[in-house]
Amino acid sequence: MKTVSWMFAATLIALNFAAVSFAQTAPGKTCAMVYQSENFSGQQLVIGDGYQIANLQRVPFGGYSDSWQNRISSAYVAQGCTLILFQYFNFEGQTVSLANRYPTTQRPVGGQYTALGGFDNLASSLICSCAQ
Ligand SMILES: [Ca+2]
Questions:
Q1: What is the pLDDT along the chain (132 residues), one digit of tens a residue?
Q2: What is the DSSP string of 18-59?
Q3: Centre of ligand 1 from the C-alpha of residue 49, in Å
Q4: Class for domain 2-130, per CATH?
Q5: Phi then psi dihedrals of residue 110, to 5 deg
Q6: What's the gap in Å between 35 CA and the centre of ligand 1?
Q7: How far is the CA of 73 from the centre of ligand 1 (A)?
């Protein structure tokens, strides 16, 4: 896993924030895409392979003054990748691990987490990495 400081990761995300297609997303491999609302709706945040974002409050949410802290409600995780969400800043508190390593006949299909249950609107930091 590459180590990327939150500042660097947040800068990359901010630069790519307006992107809506895979082709224009984060530099390098896309690890995951997270969404404001369930079923991949609302604002989208693209997360590159190796990103470690220690404080989602520093990641701007759309064009507003708000942040991505306590916003994430659904996620798509790329093949071979794992997205770990943390309840608090600096990778603390409860976690949920969202992986995409299952055959498409099993749930979640292709790493598509349409809802996050008890982790809805709870993440304050995250780590995403993919198998080499
Ligand atoms: Ca939300």
A1: 444 444 444 444 443 433 333 333 446 899 999 999 999 999 999 999 999 999 999 998 876 678 999 999 999 999 889 999 999 999 999 999 999 876 555 555 678 999 999 999 999 999 999 987
A2: T--SGGGSSSS-EEEEEEEEGGGEEEEEEEETT-EES-GGGS
A3: 23
A4: mainly beta
A5: 55, 35
A6: 7
A7: 4
Question: What distance in angstroms lies between residue 121's CA and the mean position of ligand 1's atoms?
Answer: 5
Find out whether 100 and 53 touch, Cβ atoms under 8 Å: no
* Among 126, 122, 114, residue whose Cα is nearest residue 39: 114
Spacing, Cα 124 to ligand 1 middle (Å): 12
| Amino acid (1-letter code) at residue 49 | D
Give Cα separations from 117 to 5, 29, 30, 47, 83 (angstroms).
29, 27, 24, 21, 16
